[in-house]
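writing this on my phone so excuse typos. first protein, seq and then structure
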Amino acid sequence: MQATTAPPRQLLTDADVRRIIRDEPAVEFSAGLELLDMGLQVLDDVTDDFTGGSVARNAYATLHGTATLGLTRVVDWGRAIVRPYIKMSDGTTTPRFNLGAYFTSTPERVIGESPETYAVAGYDILHGLATTVGEAYAVDAGVGYLQAVATILATQGYSRVVMDQDAAGVVLPSARVWPIDEQTKWLTIVNDLLGAVGYQGIWSDWDGWLRVHRYQSPSARASEWTYDVDPVTSMLDTLRRLRRDYFDAPNRWVAMRTNHIDGPAPVEGNGIFTYVNQFAGDTSVEARGRIISKVVPVEAADQASLIAAAQRTIDADTRTSATMSLASFSNPLHWHFDRLTLNDPSVGPVADVLSTTWTLPLDGSLMTHGWTLL
């Protein structure tokens, strides 16, 4: 999630921001839109020509963010980058929340209206990496994984990047080549390189900066927000859907390193990592009465990166067994794979959940969520 006191809210307290989002009985919403350049510098505020819309996020999608926006002016369609934002006011305090940067599509034009309205689809600023490479691409042995990623980002025009340097010293043990293939995008190569050193896939934040971080299991992260059903503090709609489906969920994973072709054959502890869920939850060996195995081929820089990559798959497979869909009062702090707490006796004991999808209308109407129970 966005930090409650991150810019442009750094002059407000955490308590003030939480109060306006969660506790105020009457909050006024207003939406705005900025036109940006590739360096995220503001070229113009086009709020006067903005009719509203919504933003959405799917953490498992190739491009995580999308937007549906209305404009009554022409911009440089196909090249323009926009950043929507909303403000929430209690009459005294008015925090602003940026909601990501998006490339704009060539829009649908509504003829006959005055002024004419353009229905614009916005695509995550990562879309600049979603183009086909169009030729073979190689990274030589001895080149740092993060260095290779930084080179691609700079070449594709990205200058606003936050990169965790934990793996800065890890280099490719052998050359890596991506052949000419219509399916090979710059984003594919970037995420392949990051996955090899135990990093999660690249994502863009609420301001439009690209983020590169080491993968951390959701169960190891602190909760960022609590949703409950207390009449005083509840933000949740009364209708909530819970689905459990774990029939094919594995409880044994065998991850194999596939890219150290000049090294010794992989063995357990050196090129192979095996994990068995013996007792935890409905999908465990104990609960199911049998072992359900899954083989996970991984390109990894070393054994530690292999384990980290395997853990991403294990976490994802474990989470798929219980999902929720629901709606809530607007919470514009939400962003990428948020770790949350749910206190709802109708669902069960206090639970940790992971936010994987959400849609936020910019007019303050209910936002929708997709959660998985951890």
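second protein below, same order as before
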Amino acid sequence: MQVTKAAARRFLLLAQGLLEAPGVRPWAKELRGKEGALAAVERLEAVQLDPISVVERNHHLVLRNRVGGYRPGHLDGLFASRRVIEYLANARCVLPMADLPAFWPIMLAARQLPARETLAGSMAEVLGHLRAHGEAPPREMGNEGPRLMGIGYHPADKSSKASGRAIDLLWLGGEILVSRRAGNEKWYDLAERVVPPAVADLLPGGRAAVAGPNTMEGRQDPARGEREEADVLVVGEGSVARPWGTPSLSAAPADWQSFLLDKYMRAYRLADLGDFRFGWQNYTAAERKALAAEKVASGEWIDVAVEGVKRRYYALAADRRLLEEAEGWKAGGPVRFIAPLDNLLWRRERLQDLFDFDYTWEVYTPAAKRRYGYYAMPILYQDRLIGRMDPRLDRKQGVLVVNRLQLEPGVKESVRLKGALEKALQAFASWHGVEEIRYPCD
């Protein structure tokens, strides 16, 4: 089917909870509090986590734009009540706890990582500490232990603590999970104490699958017995930020592959084959093309041509009606400041195609080369990205500092827009617990 840019972006904003239109009840008015936060995570499929706290952290900003009355404590409460987990999807993400059984084959496969043999001693220490003392943050587990470079293991982060990489490996393998968050600090516990019984019952082997001894000695690799029979997948070590690579395809199609692909499509809603994260798997370009053709032929996906855009997109067939209707929607709603790792921004090329908006997160760009600011947040107004705001929360002074607020070329600062921006800025400051807004450029 063919759609205009306006229809494509309105559909995308609606699907990701950011559009207000006649006859459409916005998420922020429908979803409230902790239960609303869980519903938003379920609808978005994944919310990306990030530790940077120039203002509130990315995951909280994502939920603030979609959940009425949202506070960071709501997500913390979902962790504490065992209703969400952390695992790798688009990156390290918050996911519904109900997803854990589908991720379990990937967790088992992560136990094949070669680093586990070298780090077996550190992993045993971490498991023993959690077994004896209960949940704990990384700083309490092996803080005085050896550095990786001292035990014959030499990844890129060789100066890191051995216990830190041991925690990563155990978490990737599903043997320990994040049990709660306190600000930017993660607390871990044994999976058997985190996974609710009703969810554990859905795993192969039931509740016994998440139980384990307090050391690694004599422990049989749960994935070893399945490798030859199921050929679950092959994993390889990646960077420090992503401790292992994107899942590689099994020799034969597996349930986990379909699960990840379906979840990816529900999260992105409009996807193109050039995305290096496509399906959250390690597909080759030829495999992506063949898979898309198969999905369109089977009626699961539709091929979407956006008017004036060279790149081809794909959507779920179930979304055809919304794509057809989106052209007639009249977008409304307040100004929203979009977090740098918001789901809407996951694919920068899509922003160019649908919004005519070029966005680079400049947090890793040298200061002298930044154009828009360290934490520049795109500004969404109705169905357009109209500019950027680079904020900083001065917690000691109780001030929201707006380093830069810049509109895109061609966007006119009407009285109505100026009023909407001022109202949004005041609400943003109040949500952060401050009332004063300062503009250093003035």
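The two ends are 49 Å apart (CA to CA). thats all i got for now
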